[in-house]
Specification:
Layout: H1 6-11, E1 14-17, H2 21-33, E2 41-44, H3 52-56, E3 61-62, H4 65-70, E4 74-77, H5 84-91, E5 101-104, H6 111-117, E6 124-128, E7 138-143, H7 149-160, E8 163-167, H8 173-200, H9 205-223, H10 230-237, H11 243-253, H12 256-271
Parallel strand pairs: 1-2, 1-4, 2-3, 4-5, 5-6, 7-8
Antiparallel strand pairs: 6-7
Helix pairs in contact: 8-9, 8-12
Length: 276
């Protein structure tokens, strides 16, 4: 944690290789949660000039992946799938068994291939968070090969600091990409659509967005209550001949549920092909 001894700081030193949207969100989220000080989270990108905002907040940034690894214990792979093989070739020689742990958030990249490409004894965990890590509200799915219990526990600690976690079988990581990672965009699009409807029925744009966003937050909280189900909460709102059921039925006639389901299926199919 921030402010602890230098030995413990080394335990919490992180190299995020790939400073895109997700990599930056991870760095911000872990610093915000106190997992590590910004100075202990090194973020790399081929064009580090695009990381100026992070640098201004005290994060070490650059384009040298091996230098970032030399100053870290936890190495997070956050590049695009098409960049992964080149990155593995680059970092393999400098990863140290017994010191380094690798966490991959690369869509579609299985742990078997990562273990084969990296030095023997370097533990690998696969994680699928979403960009809500930056505000501590991610849903992150985790998986790891057999014999990686300690590394998995370490990864769970990291990602619980920025949201909820669920350990799943690795064959479910591609579906998790569609539901959790892509799902952020899907739900945001629903909020955007609701705000546009709010404008059409009379609210100013900023009012409509506030009302739609906060209502969505409340609905999500209700769905996560123990011993509840979305349909049970829907039934509490709908009344005979009421305005809620009228709106719901019209949305279903227009294909709301089927569109979401089909979108998730298509996203899952595409996610499975990203690293081929």
């Amino acid at each position: 944690m921030t402010g602890q001894s230098s030995e413990n700081d080394d335990e919490r030193s992180i190299a995020v290789l790939g400073g895109g949207n997700l990599g930056v969100a991870l760095a911000l989220g872990w610093a915000r949660a106190g997992i590590a000080a910004p100075s202990a989270i090194h973020v790399t990108r081929r064009n580090p000039d695009k990381l100026g905002d992070l640098a201004a907040q005290g994060f070490p940034v650059g384009s040298d992946n091996t230098a970032a690894i030399s100053a870290a214990r936890i190495v997070v792979l956050a590049v695009q799938p098409q960049q992964l093989d080149r990155l593995l070739d680059e970092i393999g020689p400098v990863l140290e068994p017994g010191r380094h742990q690798v966490v991959s958030v690369v869509s579609g990249a299985g742990t078997a291939g990562l273990v084969e490409a990296l030095p023997d004894g370097v533990p690998v965990v696969r994680a699928m968070p979403n960009t809500a890590v930056s505000i501590g509200e991610s849903m992150t799915c985790l998986s790891a090969p057999e014999g990686s219990a300690e590394a998995l526990a370490e990864a769970e600690l990291l990602f619980k600091a920025v949201g909820e976690t669920l350990t799943i079988r690795e064959e479910m990581m591609v579906p998790a990409t569609a539901l959790c990672a892509c799902g952020v965009a899907f739900f945001l699009r629903v909020i955007r659509a609701a705000s546009q409807g709010g404008i059409e029925i009379g609210f100013h744009p900023e009012e409509a967005l506030l009302l739609a966003g906060q209502t969505a937050r409340g609905a999500a909280a209700l769905s996560l209550k123990e011993d509840t189900h979305p349909e049970a909460e829907i039934d509490r709102v709908t009344t005979p001949r009421g305005c809620t059921i009228a709106g719901l039925n019209e949305m279903e006639h227009q294909g709301l549920s089927s569109a979401l389901i089909k979108g998730l299926i298509v996203s899952a199919r595409a996610a499975g092909e990203l690293y081929e």
